[in-house]
Amino acid sequence: MFSYRHAYHAGNHADVLKHFIQVQLHQYMNQKDTAYTYIDTHSGAGVYALDSAQASRSGEFEDGIARLWNRDDLPPALAEYVDVVRALNPSGKLRYYPGSPYVAEQVARPEDRLRLFELHPSDIKILVDNFRKLEAHQAEQGERARGRRVLIDYKDGFQGLKALLPPPSRRALVLIDPPYEVKLDYKHVRDALEEALKRFPGGMYAVWYPVLQRMESRQFADRLKRLPAKEWLHVTLTVATPGPDGTGLHSSGMFILNPPYTLEPTLRQVLPYLVQVLGQDGGATFRIERGTQVTGAMAAAGP
Ligand code: SAM
What are the residue positions of the site described as Interaction with substrate rRNA (predicted)? Predict the structure, then answer.
């Protein structure tokens, strides 16, 4: 059950798409004074060493973050994400990659809360340890202790989410990012969102998923579109033509319920650039579509 380790995939093209969008979602949430709760149902280890045996064995980051690292023509919104990675690599050499909990820690404000769930017995320890080190470093730098800003739970994230909604401040950003190694994860995500929307219809929910040939993946976005959210935004990034054997991850998607109105124009600026820089062959492309519950209207666009 616990064969998935994100360390093999950290910083790949799918992480670039996910974490670039995560930064944008935090920045939108940061615009209002009221504090919010960030909930990460599937946190992973928080920070990844790209020279670890796992990351260097797969080398996936080479076709992801490494392709952006030395670019001097990044679109501004993408530069904001790369800056978060840079903050973790002050020497200028790309050695560490931030997972979603670290991205949240960096971009959310001191008054916002982070609620992190992880169920892998090794990754939960690494996650706790990474946050301990981070807090020690912040204390050394003379930063004020942030109290119980970050809570980490060794617990099923779908259950954890349910218990946290609605949040006290009535503002929440939720990231749902399971491994999808078991087909049931697709159903669990949909069910969790249905329940979450009942408890807290105004939350902002972001789901990452792999675009694969398997039926559950192909039907996934259509199922999410039928959830009773006021609005949704769906983006996919494909970096290569899938091979005939269907192995490897060439495409992934982010599905956002109640997205910020600013996100679609930002995606339209950044996705063509990502296709150009991360694309591996002529099959590289993107797709953006959105819809609203009120009109059922939908607009789709690719390059
Ligand atoms: N969100 C992370 C990031 O962007 O850096 C990556 C998460 S990784 C794709 C998925 C993680 O979910 C794995 O670390 C796995 O151990 C964990 N996991 C699997 N099932 C879980 C569950 N039911 N609840 C919480 N975590 C789970």
Answer: 4
